[in-house]
Amino acid sequence: MKKIGIMTTGGDCSGLNTVIHRVVRGAILRGWTVVGILDGTDGLCENPPRILEFDEHTLPIENARLAGSFLHNGHAGALNFETAAENGRIAAFNKKLYRGLRALDLDALILIGGNGSLSLAWANRETYRDLQLVCIPKTIDMDMPMTDRTIGFDTAVQQLTGFCDQLMLTARSHHRWFVVQAMGRDCGQLALNAGVAVGATAILIPEIKFDIDTLVRHIKHAPTDYGVIIVSEGISLRGHSGKPADMISRKLTAAGIVNRTAFPEHTQRAGDTTAADRILASRLADCALHAIDNGETYVMTALDCNGCKTVALSDFVAAGETVRDPKIPDLLTSNAYVSPDDPLLDVAPHLGIYIGETK
Ligand code: F6P
After folding, report:
1. Global confidence as pTM
2. Mutation test residue for ligand 1: of 83, 189, 269, 327, the one with most atoms within 8 Å of CB
3. Handedness of CA 241, 11, 112, 129 (dihedral sign)
4. Fewest C-beta atoms under 10 Å: which of 4, 39, 260, 334?
5. 140 CA closest ligand 1 atom index
């Protein structure tokens, strides 16, 4: 009989509870014991580690659709993968993690995390040498290489779309525009997908250069005198600082376009998990359990052309574009951006959405 641990790290997103629920269900059916590690690495570093022992009733199915993590992701400002690396305390931190894992005597750990957590887990892989490490990708940013989808993305697109849909009605009443700032760090996936869903007039993402004068002309020639412009939080405008939505808003105001800014912020990480995210969570949970059955370790579950598979963490880290985090010396984080052959980059301009200077 195996004993497995499950832990959620990094920023939360909707879909985490579905993964936890499905992992617990599949594990109990196999006769395994499941412990949930509370507050991510924060709880694992404590002596003894803070845990929750799961049975069938610990996380009721009706709660598995709720956003957030039933296990929590850690206190803001606590020592975690990223803050330890940033503060040069990674060796001591790894020692604590190792001690916590030994105390729990796990056969396997399912780590549900984003780019930062997975890259750091691989960089510090010695910590997990005595167990099987199986990761499940989650993030609203969809910036992880080697998987076509990450848990939480679909719900975030739905949340942002709903937010913009509401603004569209008040925009129409007052013949004005809303500049909405989307999350996503330096990846434009969330803004691009929600923008197409909403029928935004323009979508500005970090991957594509844009021209303010062209944007202004595009808005002035739009078939409506109201609408939504979605800007990614990762865009920049030479010579300007501050929030990207504010920068764009000021430019539009200067050009005589009446507008307001709107910031959906962390509502993009909330919201009941969409059916698509629940299905993805169920599939990746099942894939992770099979990986444990098969004795795999240092792997990440992935969706590839609608099939689920595992990929080596080493390949994950080497894939995409490796980015050096200025705050974490020696760490190469693997990032995936909107690819130039993303079909939405064709569809959007064909339908009159300005997405920047693509030609
Ligand atoms: O990576 C997920 C994410 O929501 C980003 O889109 C956003 O930039 C960041 O996390 C916000 O982090 P915090 O919750 O620490 O403000």
Report:
1. 0.97
2. 269
3. positive
4. 260
5. 2
